[in-house]
Amino acid sequence: MAFGAEELRVLRRALALALHPCPASAQDVQDCLRLAETVDEATREGARLRAFLLADLARYRAALPGTAAGYLTLLEEALGAGYRPVPDDLAALRALCGNPVAAVLLDRCLALAEQDVRARLARHSVPASRTRGRTRLTALPGGLAATGTAAGTTALTATAMAGAATGDPGGKPAEKPAEKPAPRPRPQSPSRDRPIPTPGEVFPPRRKPSAPPANPPRQLAAV
């Protein structure tokens, strides 16, 4: 994408306003809006041209080997525009091994494919030791969420955890589990060797009141 002199002037003014905020004039605002619309339109047009180029490349590749010249020209143009070769392109170039242009493009496509493979492996491969260390520190209370924690405190915490896990006396000893309360003694049941009391022993019979005497003594009347 190339900018003209007027577009470069507007772009320079927009960058100056972004670096040193100050009130912008109405003309500056209108120029920036027009430049943004022009850039958007150029981006959409570039996407359309890229889609047409890739469609033509696929048609020429499907019609090989009769379209070898056109296919090699389109492939070179697509690579210059940032196209990454697919396995079908590599197979087609290997089939055209007798063509010197195809041999040069094959070496170029193989180098690009190797770069893509290495980039994918670098993104998805993480050392196991770093993964374990990150998992352990994340499990700590306030691990990654806490801000402002000193590096020495984090190292001491990790060392204490490692010592507790391996039995090292340098680490913090694990807390003893709470002891279970002793069971309460159950009330003893009465011994079966002791004889069971009879109802007469528990409830003794009432004594009958004594009968009054037949001839009670008479008291003498006072004289």
Q: Can you tell me about this structure?
A:
Helices cover 58% and strands 0% of the residues. It is mostly helical. It has a domain of 117 residues. Helix 1 crosses helix 2. The radius of gyration is 51 Å and the shape is elongated. The N and C termini lie far apart (160 Å). 6% of the residues are buried. About 6% of the residues have low confidence.
Distance N terminus to C terminus? 160 Å
> Element order, helices and strands?
HHHHHHHH
| Major sheet | none
Helix vs. strand class: mainly alpha
Q: Name the assembly state.
A: single chain
How many individual helices? 8
Beta-strand residue percentage: under 5%
Query: Which parts are unreliable, with pLDDT below 50 for 5 consecutive residues or more?
Result: 143-151, 167-171
Please give the radius of gyration in angstroms: 51 Å
Which range best describes the helical content: under 10%, 10-25%, 25-40%, 40-55%, 55-70% or over 70%? 55-70%
- Mean residue pLDDT: 74
Which word captures the global form?
elongated
Structure, briefly:
The protein is mostly helical and 223 residues long.
